[in-house]
C-alpha cells in the first residue's frame, strides 16, 4: 500500500523527487483511566525514493491518521539526510546480514524476475529502496520495528566492487 507524494519545496533538486511511503504497522495502545479506556495509536512508516534512499518514521497520536502523518514527516526528513545505498541494478551486490536487537535479516542477491521474497517489515524497506529482486530470511525476533532497523543495518553494509577497491587502494 504505497502512497506517492510530490514535494513542492524550492530548497534543492532533491525536493522535486517523488517519495513513496509504506505503512508497516499500526498499533493501538490503551490506557485505563477513570471513565474507561483511552486509546492512542503508533504508526511505523517506511519512506523511500526507489533509487537507493530509504528511511523509517515512527509517529504517535490519539488517532490513526495523525500518527501516520507524523511518521511520514519524520521519514521524509530522514530520507533527505541519508546517503543512497549501493545497489547493483535491481538487486544488491552481495550477501549481507543485518542485525538489530534480537532480529537478524539475511539478504541474498537474486536474478532478474525473482521478485522480492520477504516478509512484512523487510519487504516494505526493500521496495521503498528500489530493490525488486532479492531473497531474504528472518531469524530471531519478528518485531516490525526491529526488522525495519535490521534491514536498514544490512543495507548500510553494502559495498560495490569499486568502493571496496577504493577503500583498499587496489586497482580493479
Automatic annotation (TrEMBL):
SUPFAM superfamilies: dsRNA-binding domain-like, Ribosomal protein S5 domain 2-like
Keywords noted in UniProt: Ribonucleoprotein, Ribosomal protein, RNA-binding, rRNA-binding
Domain S5 DRBM: 19-82
GO cellular component: cytoplasm; small ribosomal subunit
Domain of life: Bacteria
InterPro entries: Ribosomal_Su5_D2-typ_SF, Ribosomal_uS5, Ribosomal_uS5_bac-type, Ribosomal_uS5_C, Ribosomal_uS5_N, Ribsml_uS5_D2-typ_fold_subgr
Entry annotated with the keyword DNA-binding: no
Function: With S4 and S12 plays an important role in translational accuracy.
Subunit structure of this chain's protein: Part of the 30S ribosomal subunit. Contacts proteins S4 and S8.
UniProt comment concerning the protein's domains: The N-terminal domain interacts with the head of the 30S subunit; the C-terminal domain interacts with the body and contacts protein S4. The interaction surface between S4 and S5 is involved in control of translational fidelity.
HAMAP family: Ribosomal_uS5_B
Family: Belongs to the universal ribosomal protein uS5 family.
Protein name per its UniProtKB record: Small ribosomal subunit protein uS5
Source species of the chain: Thermogemmata fonticola
Lineage, top ranks: Bacteria, Pseudomonadati, Planctomycetota, Planctomycetia, Gemmatales
Gene: rpsE
Amino acid at each position: 500500500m504505497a502512497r506517492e507524494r510530490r514535494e513542492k519545496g524550492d530548497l534543492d533538486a532533491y525536493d522535486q523527487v517523488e517519495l513513496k511511503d509504506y505503512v508497516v504497522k499500526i498499533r493501538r495502545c490503551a490506557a485505563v483511566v477513570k471513565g474507561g479506556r483511552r486509546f492512542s495509536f503508533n504508526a511505523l512508516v517506511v519512506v523511500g525514493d526507489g533509487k537507493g534512499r530509504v528511511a523509517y518514521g515512527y509517529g504517535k497520536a490519539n488517532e490513526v491518521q495523525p500518527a501516520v502523518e507524523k511518521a511520514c514527516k519524520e521519514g521524509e526528513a530522514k530520507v533527505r539526510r541519508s546517503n543512497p545505498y549501493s545497489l547493483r541494478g535491481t538487486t544488491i551486490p552481495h550477501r549481507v546480514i543485518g542485525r538489530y536487537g534480537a532480529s537478524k535479516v539475511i539478504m541474498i542477491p537474486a536474478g532478474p524476475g525473482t521478485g522480492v521474497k520477504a516478509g512484512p517489515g523487510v519487504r516494505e524497506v526493500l521496495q521503498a529502496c528500489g530493490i525488486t529482486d532479492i531473497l531474504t530470511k528472518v531469524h530471531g525476533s519478528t518485531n516490525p520495528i526491529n526488522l525495519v532497523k535490521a534491514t536498514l543495518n544490512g543495507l548500510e553494509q553494502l559495498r560495490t566492487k569499486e568502493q571496496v577497491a577504493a577503500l583498499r587502494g587496489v586497482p580493479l
